[in-house]
Design brief:
By secondary structure, this protein is mainly beta. The protein has 3 domains: about 35-115, Sandwich (Immunoglobulin-like), CATH 2.60.40; about 120-285, Lipocalin, CATH 2.40.128; about 295-470, Sandwich (Jelly Rolls), CATH 2.60.120.260. Helix content is about 5%, strand content about 40%. It contains 3 helices and 33 strands. The protein has helices at about 1-20, 115-120, 120-130; strands at about 40-45, 55-60, 65-70, 75, 80-85, 90-100, 100-110, 135-140, 150-155, 160-165, 180, 190, 195-200, 215-220, 225-230, 235-240, 250, 255-260, 265-270, 275-285, 295-300, 305, 315, 320-325, 340-345, 350-355, 360, 370-375, 400-405, 415-420, 430-435, 445-450, 460-470. The strands form 7 sheets. Strands 8, 9, 10, 11, 12, 15, 16, 18, 19 and 20 form a 10-stranded antiparallel β-sheet that branches. The longest helix has 20 residues, at about 1-20. The chain is elongated, with a radius of gyration of 33 Å.
Length: about 475
């Protein structure tokens, strides 16, 4: 009997080994056949309450359904609603996605009558002027305010990377654009005087040569452009047809409306070639004259000792860093303060920090600034390299203070500047800036601090303290 069991066991073992040597067929999922246009079907049913609102139901297989309503708006889902205030024919396009692929099909619906009540919306009226504005409403770039063009990170809500100064783009084909939005037929007339302002990443779309700069290029906008507004939760999007755009081209025709009033419209737009950027523009109604606020003319204290909170706010321009609470690198008799400001110049040619004041400075009597500065000897003050116009493109042992009119796009053109050389290094030195020669100026509202000179590409580290208007 034991011999019998041994024989059976041996047979089973050989069978298992033999089966294990057989190649196994690779298991592949059966995705089925890719869908065709004939597989894409849907129903369109006017709602009982309003025949200009149509219910669309997807009757096709698949895990995703994308809709285009032919009026500038889109939707996703198996049951969606489209709004069609204006009579006419609309081509409805449905795209379905299955595990094996995607397919698209279209059918046309007819809206028999215009529903005027659907057109009487606040956003429509603000954009177009409403039913009484037969010629529509015209918008132009709000060129006179800061930030009328700007850029920031895709996840942000404001243009923290860059904001154009008032009238900064006056030499471009930007401020002469006019966009007229009409309620009748949802038409858009885009008058650009034959050219448009194009983002540097998109100049090739208009036949321009890529050179790393925005360009004004010939462009004839589409004559049959239309608009629509789509609500996505609390967010509102303005969509232009036929490749339309709002004055500054970044490759998109969809713009988030962040502000819309009788006189102002602010938009946020993406960049089709840079998924990390969001662009911002500001428009005003043509003919709107912004009230000019009265700016006070004051003789106020200006101070910051960096140990305590000063009465000014510092901003940076190109500079690598301006740390306003840095440990004093030399707590000696000439400056025993615990905290100072650390000023790091980069290779950019015009590094500086500045203060924008909410008033124009009265410097008829108080016109002298003082501060302490520490110039380290470890910086490289010998290497030369900079702008071609600079006769001495090296890092300089000097401190410059400038007073400017921040209302000007090129504020440096009318600035007053006092430069103080510093010969003593590795020690705290008090420097004085006397602006008495400019005491009759009444337009200064910006203070610019620049250390190490400008117009060169040489970095450096410096320290400042006890900044004050005497």
């Amino acid at each position: 009997m034991k011999t019998y069991y041994k024989i059976i066991s041996a047979i089973l073992l050989v069978s298992i080994v033999w089966l294990g040597c057989e190649p196994l067929e690779e298991s592949k999922p059966d995705l089925g056949e890719a869908p065709t246009a004939a597989d894409v079907t849907f129903t369109a049913t006017p709602t009982a309450e309003n025949p200009n609102i149509v219910r669309f139901n997807n009757t096709s297989p698949g895990f995703k359904a994308l809709w285009n309503f032919g009026n500038g708006s889109t939707a996703e889902g198996n049951e969606v609603f489209g709004e069609f205030p204006i009579q006419g024919e609309y081509e409805i396009t449905l795209t379905i996605f299955t595990r094996a692929g995607k397919a698209t099909n279209s059918q046309t619906i007819n809206i028999a009558e215009t529903n005027a009540l659907m057109l009487d919306r606040e956003d429509y009226n603000l954009l177009t002027g409403g039913a009484n504005a037969l010629e529509g409403k015209t918008w132009i770039v709000d060129s006179g305010v800061a930030g009328h063009l700007g850029v920031g990170p895709i996840g942000g809500t404001f243009p923290e990377f860059y904001q154009a100064a008032p009238n900064e783009k006056a030499g471009e084909g930007y401020y002469d654009d006019e966009l007229t939005f009409k309620l009748d037929g949802f038409g858009v007339d885009y008058a650009n005087q034959g050219s448009s302002f194009i983002n540097q990443a998109h100049v090739s779309d208009f036949g321009g040569s890529v050179n790393g700069a925005d360009q004004t290029l010939p462009h004839d906008p589409a004559a049959d452009m239309t608009w629509s507004i789509v609500d996505e939760g609390p967010r509102k999007f303005l969509i232009l047809s036929n490749g339309g755009f709002m004055s500054y081209y970044t490759g998109v025709s969809r713009f988030e409306i962040t502000l819309l009033t009788e006189d102002e419209m602010h938009i946020r737009q993406l960049d089709s070639r840079n998924g990390e950027l969001a662009w911002y523009q500001k428009f005003i109604r043509k003919g709107f004259e912004r009230p000019v606020p009265e700016v006070p003319y004051l003789a106020e204290d200006v101070f910051d000792n960096f140990d305590e909170e000063g009465n000014v706010t510092w901003s940076v321009d190109q500079i690598g860093a301006f740390n306003q609470s840095f440990d004093n690198p030399a707590m000696i008799a000439t400056n025993p303060s615990a905290k100072v400001a650390r000023y790091v110049k980069t290779t950019a040619p015009f590094d500086n920090v500045y203060i924008d004041l909410p008033y124009k400075m009265d410097i008829t009597e108080r016109n002298v600034f003082t501060m302490k500065v520490f110039i380290p000897s470890y910086n490289d003050y010998e290497t030369a390299g900079g702008e071609v116009w600079n006769p001495d493109p090296r890092l300089l042992r000097q401190v410059s203070l400038k007073l400017q009119n921040g209302d000007l796009a090129a504020a440096f053109e009318t600035q007053a500047e006092v430069i103080v050389p510093v010969t003593q290094m590795d020690n705290w030195v008090e420097v004085t800036f006397d602006f008495s020669a400019f005491a009759d100026r009444t337009d200064f509202d910006r203070i610019v601090l620049q250390i190490g000179g400008e117009g060169h590409y040489n970095p450096g580290i410096f320290f400042v303290d006890d900044f004050r208007l005497q």
